[in-house]
Design goal:
homodimer; alpha+beta; 21 helices; globular
Chain lengths: 488, 488
């Protein structure tokens, strides 16, 4: 017989504690058992935790027999079709109605898995919520490896509980400043998800004059920012991240008329899918409006993470179809290649590209040239003439990507979906808004401003959810006009 | 045709708004509709509100057809008995399992009544939670008049939602002092439920030296204390409310070794059944322990609201049976009267009462005398000799009432149930602890100290919930010893 490995012993202990915690005769689960359970779970390594979560998902579900009985009882209480005409509330019918309500109530209760009850009690403990958030981070990883229905169900339940426990009424808004603890500031540096912060001194610049940083905290998780946002107070709507991050002389705050939300980061992997950013943006916008009435314009300066991910495959297949039919004649083409052939570039854009990049090559394909530029080492960016050549078509294609590309009725770009769902409009595209390698690789350096008008958010949200409308400013809509001709 | 009354029109509008709010095509309910709904509901008078709540409870329930379908589907997915032996997870079985989880999830969702969804969205609004708490106060009153199953179901759901939204992690503890707004202090005066406060100056004494007041607040209901507690810092465990309320010279706080919780008040009728007091007491005890390490003893000074309500009917029926058999001979008695005949008083107690109160009356009945004293104008209290005579038996009967009288496994006295369930023990009975009319009428002036030891609360709570044990100090248990003879 093989020796029992340490993690196997701990796992056994974890299972034992889970059973103890759940099968207490009364509804109050002792702190002690839950405390031990947390301790033992945290001792487990990856393998052990996967197994513990699997056990939790399969052996701590619902009492199936009880649920089946309640369902059968409920179905037996359904009104007889033949009696449907008789609307009088007889005593017996009233009794049946009361029995139906009771059964609904009992069924609601019986459908709560034991694991959910365990989570509820865990949440009542000091430190319990943080433990559960980290546990869900584990669970999300396990599901990536073993996509089982039981694990997905466990995840859905726990996520639902987080949504309830982390409602905006419970969250505390805190302005993060250089007066905060180094321990908190170090977390901010680590959690920053959009524009990496080099070190604490780099962070200091983002907390100084003309800058603000706010985070949402939950009283049950002290010192742990759940989501935070960085704001720049600017003269006009900001157009590039370079000005925000590297401006030497900050604008005196009294001269600022615009607030620019340039970075928002969710910090807990275990809170994936819980949208706290929406509440945070609006809360901060309202706060800034109250504190500084001269601020008129509230926009983001956002990346477009999906633009080139979308454009490049399209260029690849456009290149393939244009190579199959170099002459442009489509009479003998198969129907299939006709359907897929899309005109990505306007004729004028193709000509401009060929003129500057084509050289002497008669067979130069503007689509291939563009593809090569976008997948290269981005030297073209450094030369203004070269950059100016591709600018019109890239801006136009970007506008098309943002406003027209959808998936299941939602904007294809996740950042667009986020902001438009929040009730913002696509206000302006910014060429070379982000010159960093990441910015160029993601979206050819283009950044977008989403504009928030608090009195309009509900209307825009409704139009998006009901009609799938992605509202944009006239300047952005203009890119998509058929007669669009760029002027730089 | 009768003219349409104003409240009927408003009610129509309320119904309309309810439908609008619920039947939006998407899941985000517009703030505007919900805001209007609240406005219109608040315009309704009592009759209108009753009807509105009835409509909400009967027409905003679950989609019965959908629930029935899901149930039938779930039942069809149950494993066949004949296959139970075959434990292999075939692909089809794995699919069935996934379908079962999905159906469970859908059923959980389908069992959430439309009214609950309405409440959820309402809670997301500013002022929404307070509106719902007041709405539940209305609902509780309506149920007193019309005890319908549909209304009870609506109440149970809303109460469940409050339990979730008002978990201790979300509540803010605030020490209430003379520095707080007059508006808040006025609310405290109005909400005080145990020892009435005459006016703001009377309150000031309860916030001064040697006194503390703490309340739980929820961020979504600013300025509204949900529950508050009053504490006196004393030299020894306090024995009477007179010393607490009317002591002229407060003890210097450095000399205090005991904290006495002498009043706890829940403020919102709409939060009936939501226990916030438990968390509050423990939170405050921990806080005081940290702030003032010289505090060793944490007790309450509590009323006994049910003592005479229990004792007097017993005395009445004991009087009846003793009058039926004046001689004490029971040979010819009917079996029934024997069963009900209880020895309320010990022989020695009866003799003492007769000696002092009996006068020359040979047929004087000590039970009748006691009954008369307790239901009279309480003049006996003022004479020490008279009070001392009934003291032993009343204290003994009170101890019996607290420790032995139960209903469905729980302590009969609601205050006892509250504290013992929290994990406190019955520490000491105090004769003339409350000399006010209310105190004398409720419990012949007796008050009780419940003692909290934070490290013991879980053990005592478990013993109560599992075995129904009401733990008491040796001094209190002594009253119930068979050989108990009181020494004053």
């Amino acid at each position: 017989m093989l020796p029992v490995l340490p993690w196997q012993m701990i796992l056994k202990r974890v299972q034992q504690l889970m059973y103890e915690a759940i099968h207490m005769k009364n509804t109050d689960m002792p702190d002690k058992t839950l405390g031990l359970l947390r301790q033992e779970y945290l001792k487990l390594d990856w393998e052990g935790r996967s197994r513990a979560l699997l056990v939790l998902s399969t052996e701590f579900g619902i009492d199936n027999a009880r649920v089946v009985n309640l369902m059968r009882h409920y179905l037996s209480l359904q009104p007889d079709d033949s009696k449907r005409e008789i609307q009088k509330l007889e005593d017996s019918e009233r009794g049946v109605l009361a029995a139906r309500y009771r059964t609904e109530h009992d069924l609601r209760s019986a459908l709560v898995p034991l694991s959910s009850r365990l989570f509820e009690h865990m949440n009542g403990q000091v430190g319990g919520l943080k433990f559960l958030v980290d546990l869900r981070a584990d669970l999300i990883s396990v599901i990536k490896q073993q996509n089982l229905a039981s694990l997905r169900a466990l995840d859905a339940n726990l996520k639902g509980m987080f949504s309830t426990w982390l409602g905006p009424a419970c969250l505390e808004l805190h302005q993060i400043t250089w007066e905060d603890s180094a321990s908190l500031l170090e977390k901010i540096v680590g959690y920053e998800a959009v524009h990496p912060i080099s070190n604490l001194y780099d962070l200091k610049r983002r907390l100084g004059v003309g800058r603000r940083c706010y985070g949402y905290f939950h009283p049950a998780m002290p010192g742990e920012p759940l989501v935070f946002i960085e704001v720049a107070l600017t003269k006009d709507m900001g157009a590039s991240i370079q000005e925000v991050l590297f401006d030497e002389v900050p604008l005196p705050e009294s001269e600022a008329t615009a607030a620019l939300f340039y970075s928002i980061s969710s910090t807990q992997p275990g809170l994936k899918g819980i949208d706290l950013g929406n509440f945070l943006i609006k809360r901060v916008a309202r706060l800034l409006q109250q504190e500084m009435s001269q601020l008129q314009v509230f926009t983001t300066l956002s990346p477009i993470p999906g633009f080139l991910k979308w454009l490049i495959p399209k260029l690849v297949s456009a290149c393939k179809s244009s190579n199959v039919n170099p002459s442009g004649n489509s009479v003998d083409d198969t129907a299939a290649s006709n359907v897929f052939k899309e005109e990505l570039l306007h004729k004028s854009e193709e000509r401009a590209i060929l003129e500057v990049f084509g050289g002497d090559n008669k067979d130069a394909n503007p689509l291939e040239i563009l593809l090569r530029l976008l997948t290269s080492d981005q030297e073209w960016v450094k030369t203004e003439k070269l950059a100016d050549t591709v600018r019109p078509c890239l801006m136009r294609l970007c506008a098309r990507y943002l406003l027209r590309e959808k998936k299941r009725g939602k904007a294809l770009d996740p950042v667009t979906n986020f902001h438009v769902r929040n009730g913002a409009i696509v206000e302006r595209l910014n060429w070379m808004g982000n010159r960093s390698t990441k910015g160029l690789q993601e979206s050819a350096g283009i950044m977008v401003n989403y504009l928030y008008r608090l009195e309009k958010v509900e209307e825009i949200n409704q139009a998006y959810l009901n009609q799938g409308e992605i509202r944009a400013s006239p300047a952005v809509e203009e890119y998509l006009q058929p007669n669009y001709r760029a002027c730089i």
